[in-house]
Predict the 3D structure of the following.
Amino acid sequence: MNKIHFKTGNVIWILFIINSLLIISYIFPFRDMIDLFTKQEAGAIGIIGGIDGPTAIFISSQINWYIVVLVALEIISGIYLLLTHLKKK
């Protein structure tokens, strides 16, 4: 059997790239670029914003913890990769 030995740096690079792709796909949802709001959905958004403004602001200002965790992992892995690169020099 062939055993594949990954260095820690290689695994971190792979996770860094996967995490970057997840963040990009979350920030720029390509499906929404193609399939924009229908007239009924756009009208509902206008009604929510017009009738109940503070609730609409509260709903849109809630923190999405998935993206916070992904960004934190991205920052941590980026710092690790930078420090290991600087240590080699």
